[in-house]
Amino acid sequence: MSVKSYIESNKDRFLEELFSLIRIPSISAKQEHKPDMTACAERWTELLLSSGADKAVVMPTAGNPVVYGEKIVSPDAKTVLIYAHYDVMPPEPLDLWKSQSFEPEIRDGRIWARGADDDKGQSMMQVKGFETALKLDLLKCNVKFIFEGEEEIGSPSLETFCREHKELLKADVILVSDTSMVSAETPSLTTGLRGLAYWEIEVTGPNRDLHSGHFGGAVANPINVLCKLMADVVDADGRITIPGFYDDVEEVSAAEREMIAQIPFDEEKYKAAIGVDALFGEKGYSTLERNSCRPSFDICGIWGGYTEEGSKTVLPSKAYAKVSCRLAPHQDHSKISQLFEEYMNGVAPAYVKVKVTPKYGGQGYVCPIDLPAYKAAEKACEVAFGKKPLAVRRGGSIPIISTFEQVLGIKTVLMGFGLEQNAIHSPNESCTLDFFYKGIESVAEFYKEYK
Asked: What is the pLDDT of residues 49-58, one digit of tens each?
């Protein structure tokens, strides 16, 4: 039986197994979903065992548990470590969903639900690809699985877990499906990720909320001040104004810039897809360079004062923001975090107090394209998608990837099957059925190639 035939004859079961995971609201950001994290981890062990793993267990960490599984075909064979995460982003705002966020629905050739792509859908592609290769006797390497439940909150427990279980996780390469392709027509493999730094900011003015008529114009409004502070972080040319911020930014070579320029990209379609009339970014770089190789600064959330129905003329005591930087390779997130804190303390005016709390971060990552596992992934995707995938850097961050390299000494191949229109982290997240099955086929073909 061929890979395609096996997938075709089992596709309905594959979907139902995915749906059983999606229905568990494993939201790591909210404490009330702690039981769901355990339930999802336990469900994964069942699915790994039924897919052919010799062993699958739930292992404790300081936070949410890790799922570990393995299939050992020979002690002399190479070993692939599959990394994925079973936690998902909160689904809010719920009123923007066209269907229930945790009740998967097939519509217009797509699976609609939180986690359909990130990362339950892509994790299932890995597991079902493994099953397909095993059933068809294509698996010539050992396979280990490590699925965590804290990726969406920065993987705070995973580094310690890796240090404590280095021997258990020993492998030749790590394979990850948690990234995206250029487009449905242009398959690609991710060769680089940006790093990440994240902070929460608290600005305090008066010791209590004040009447805006009695005090407005005489006392600084913390929301006004916070907005000004945040706006000044990026100048009119899209450059970040933090002193020393660009010291370690790697300039992309002319050869790589030329390769990026060859990626099919229609700026008008790009703008139309996200509903904007114009784009903005760092002067001197293309859109694809800005969102993959260059650093960025974003306010992820900002609030304070009265936001309920109706009006309330109040001058608030406090204002808050959550902000992040995507970092270029070689920028150290700890150094950037310190530079940002020093910058904010330096520019804060005397009429407010500013508190910066670093939350989490991670380094960027670059994958060599001459790795045997990369070559196997390249060939596998070519078989499944009908054309050789491009090698591209992507703008997202998976902080644990650099940690794997530092702690376990293992390189990672990023073999992702997401698409921009899948709207991960947003309402109406989805994944095309076509890509779900092609992803499974690609993983099975990877095992056929990797020996």
From this structure: 999 999 999 9
